Each structure stands twice: as structure tokens, then as C-alpha cells.
Amino acid sequence: MSIPTNSLRENLRVALEGYPVEDIGGGITQNDSYNAICNEIPQIAENVTENSQLQIKGSCGQGRWTSIPWVALLDPRETTSTRDGVYVVYLFEPQQDRVTLSLNQGVVDLRKEEGKQAAIDELRRRARQIRRQVEIEGFDAGEIELPNASSGPKLYGPGTIFYKRYSLPDLPDEDTLREDLRRISSKYSEWVEQFGSPVGISGGSGEKTPEYEGVGEATEKVLENLSLQGHDNWLKSELTESILRQWSSALSGYGPNSKPTLEEDFLYDQIENLYEQSEDRLASLAEELNVGKLNGLAPRETLFVVLIRDLQESSGIRQNMDQEKFQHLRNRDGQEEEEEGPFHDASEPDNADEILTQLRSNGQLIFHGPPGTGKTYTARRFARWWIGSETVSPKAEQLRFVTFHPSFNYEDFLEGLTAEKSDAGTVSYEYVDGVFKEICEDAEEAYDKTPNDEDAPPYVLVIDEINRGNLAKIFGETITQLELDKRKDADEEITVDLAHSGEEFVVPPNLFLIGTMNTADRSIALVDAALRRRFGFLSFPPNYEVFEEEYDLASADTAFVSLLDLSVSALQVINKNVLESGELGKGKQVGHSYLLGLESVSDIVNAWRYNILPLLEEYYFGELERLQSTIFETENCALFDNERSEIDNFDEGPLRHELENLLSRTSQSYTRLQ
Hints:
- This protein is an alpha/beta fold.
- It has four domains: about 10-195, 2-Layer Sandwich (Metal Transport, Frataxin, Chain A); about 215-330, no CATH class; about 350-415 and about 425-540, P-loop containing nucleotide triphosphate hydrolases (Rossmann fold); about 545-665, no CATH class.
- It has 22 helices and 19 strands.
- A six-stranded antiparallel β-sheet has the order 1-2-3-4-6-5. The protein has a five-stranded parallel β-sheet with strand order 10-13-16-9-17. Strands 7-8 form a two-stranded parallel sheet.
- The model is unreliable at about 200-205 and about 335-340 (pLDDT under 50).
């Protein structure tokens, strides 16, 4: 295709028409659209603005096609990165056939430092302030909507200060486009010259914020101050020890170059979710205690790291949460929070047909079973496979995750109120949508756009640890709407008025919920009856057949295979002893996933030391004598230090010896791998 290299109009058109919408989230291969966005338009903008100070660059994504490509003009006196500050930017929406020229704000650093909701509030405050400082003729003032944006680029909406939109069929002529760009960039430079970044976040009470030399010093000083002020580690009420151990195991070896499994990635999401849900409380307490900074972490982040380390120590777990791991967790989305591309490589689970049948029959399903049986992993894997197979161009917003805990409430799930203080000192209140309301609205929009003779694309909300929340309070008046015949356009459709905003709310038929329930924490019989009637239940018992599928036993190291064989056989015996103990039951068996994804003998040893044995110890409330006699069929198992009443620091030799002894003395049946 021959494109006039000096035509802004033609390059905007090519950028939109040639963008590979169906490949969003997939790997970038250069084409005409890429060349227009990353090369031609920046060069034209440089000639149009005639401002040598501006840094101009375009992006289609960091290695993967993003949902919102852009071309940005940055004044280095204000910012040199699209992560923060104010700049002029073309925001392309290929799926909407339009492009928006705007004066906008960077969102990544602000969201990392302040959290999503606080970032939105701050972006809006800054936008109002700048609108009082400058006017741009011919441009609208206010927020824009980006319906096809993923979570990061979506924040360009509240960050918008001024904008002008162009639709592909009605692009203005070349002179108009150039004049618009010249006008907004000129006003931008004037604003930078006159006001020079007056909108940064102002801080606190004026008391000097300390800085810690390392995580050890931070932990010691913060916990000391916490105790002196009469505060407890309130995160303890949010986490069970088994979840904490799963987190700690996933954090081992985690770093910028690691490649986490789907299950590890989900655990990292849980950590981030807990932090984001606790941000306001963390910020308040950090200010009260004058918590300092730690290698780039804000005080609230430092406090979170310290509280997790404190829980690890009190549970006898190696303290491996630190500032570097936390920063990597917060930066997982990349510089510009591009598309995850989560649906391209997802494979079909073995029980996909059974899951799909239950979901289509009920609309929602709970995976229940003992710890470590792959409930969360399967929920995530199934959702990605199903969305990818049912949708031509799947979007990241079709799949969302949330973890319930005792403090999770209606405001987090549906909608709440947030206070916003104006520059004049008055306080106003705004409604904030929760995760369920957000995905319902997205699913409803997709449903409304789908022709009557086609199925609407599925939207899936995965609720991990669903039984740990107060379900009646979380779902509120929407619990009845989950029933398929009460959803939008059904025979008995129910529309409710939400408690806070009074808005009408309906659940669309293309929304599906998958909950995971750890039966070691709670029996199905104890689940709220109203919820039981509306959810299907699918059991996830330990599965000993997966090991021969997971591992190439024929070519693996002999020592590894023999210890894995002993471990799988012993796990079968242990679970049968759990079932026959009369005090634990099937919900407290040990799942097979603790022995999956291992690569060495030391990995197997660590699985026993840091996952399996601590779980059994938790079941028996630390009564190691009873644990040994009931589960290991002996009074003196070398894996435990009976004098100190704790799990011993054993290596391969004692583990191999004790597993062999268990198998030799038991009357339980088991199947060997080889």
C-alpha cells in the first residue's frame, strides 16, 4: 500500500483500518498500521508542531498488540514517560473505528502508588485543576469512555482533560487535523511553561518520612511501633495459614525473569487483591505510625510487606516476602499495562464437558474439595479455554477474579461510596462500582450488541475462597437474580434497585460465576442455603492419575522418579488414614497438586516440608503425637522434632526412609507409579 508519508489524515486512516483487531493480545508483527502509529504519525507531528522540545513517540504495545495504541507528545519539562505527568496523546480505538486527540495524564505510576480508586480520584482532581488553568478552543472538557480498553488504558478516561474525537468515516480534512494538533500542543506547552507541574501529590502532615536501609530494619521498626501503639496484625483475620503457605511457596524464587504457572499467577493475583482491598486502611495506619519508605516502596506498601512477613514468622514459614518481590508483583502488567492475551494458549481441561453442562444449567458453579486438588487452577484454565473458544476476539474484561475473605463486603462486590474533597474544601460523595457490577455491565453491553440469532460471548467471574465471605451480605439483594429464569430477558426477569445508588440492576444471561471452596475450611452443609439452591457443586477429590500425565517418568532422573513414586504412594496412604480417622473426613485430605510441577529431589523435599506436613499439622492443631500415630502409623516419625513439637529440618534421606517405612507397615492399599 502506498501512503503519502506527509498526510496526517491518511496515516490516521491506515492506523485504524489496518490494525489487527483479531490479534489483540497476540504477538506484534509489523504492518502498515504499525508503521503509521510508530513511525509516520510521530514524524508528521514533529513537523506540524515545530517544537523541537517535544518528545514524540508511538506504541502498538510491548511485544503484543494493545487494545489502545497511541502516539504521545511529551514536554520533558513536565514528563518524559507516558507512565506519569501530563501530555498530548492520540488514543486509537480500532474496534470503534475512531481516534481521540486529547490532553491526558499518565496512569501507571499513580495507580501503582495510590491504587486504582485513589488513582481515579486523583486523576479527576488534577483534570479539574488544569481546566481552570487553561482553555483549548474547539476541544471538549471532560472524561472519555474507552469501552474496548483493558484495565490499564481504561484509566485514560478519568485522566482526560480536553479531547476531540474523530470517526473513521468522517475524518476532517488535512488542514483541520493539523490545526487541531498545533492548537492543543501549543496550549500544552504554554501550560507547562506557566505552571510547571503544579499537580503532584502533596503529602501528609509534614513529619519527615523515614527511609529504611533494608527489609530487616523495616520489619523490626514497624512491628515495634505497631506494638507500642496497641495495634495487632489485622491481616491475620484475612488469611488462613494454608493460604499463607501457598503464597509463600509461590513467592519462592519469584523474580522479574521467572515464568509463573497459571496457579502461581492466580496466587499473585490474590496477594495484589488483598493489598488493593486494604489500601485505605494501610495508608491510614502507615500515616499514624509514621511508617517509612523501603527501596522505592511507599509507606503503605512497606507496611503491607512487613505485615505479611510477620504472619510468615508467626506461622513458622520462612520470611520470603520482601520489597523486591512486592515490586515485581505490582509491575507484572508491564510498563503500559498491555493486554494479557490470556485466551490464546489455554487448553481444554479433562472435565470441561461436565463443567460446561453444569454452568449452562445453573449459571454458576462451585468447585469444592480439599486443599491442593486443582480447583483454582481448573477454574482459571476452563474460563480461559471457554472464552477463547466461544469468542472470535476475546477481551481481557471477559474474565475477572476476586477472592472473598471475612472483611469483603457488599461495597467491594456491588457498589459503595467514596468521599472526595474539592479544592474549596467541600466534601462530595461518589458511587464506586464493585467487581460484580462492573462485569455485569460489561456482559450486558456485549449481550445487547449480539444479534438475536447468535449466542452472546460468555463473561466469567471466578470467586476464589467463596466460602470465606459472608455471602448473604456480599450478594445482598442480587442473590435471587443469579437464577437463570430471573436474568435479563428471561420469563421471570427481576430488576432490583441497588441499595446505595438506587440504580436499576439486572444480571445478564451471558454472565457465569465459578467459585472455589476449600472444604478443609468449611463443609458444603454450612454454606448459606440460599446460595446452595442457586449454585451447582462439582467435587475435586485427590487425583493420583495425573502424575503419569504430568511427568515424563521414562526419561526423568532416577532418584527424582523413585522419590516421587514414594511420595505419591504415601499420599494415597495418608489420605486413606485421614478418611478413617473419624475426626478429619474427606474434606481434609491432602491434594495431589502439591506434588505437581516439581523438577528435582529438593523440590519434592520442600513440598513435604513447606506444604504437606504443615497442612497436616494445621489439621491436628499442632498435636504432633496424634498426627504421627494416626497418619504415619508410628509414635516416632523422623520428619518431626518431638522435643520441640515442630516439623524437623530434614533432607532427602530421612524423607525417603520415613515414606518407605510408612508403606511397609501400612495395611492400606496404594498404586505405584512404576
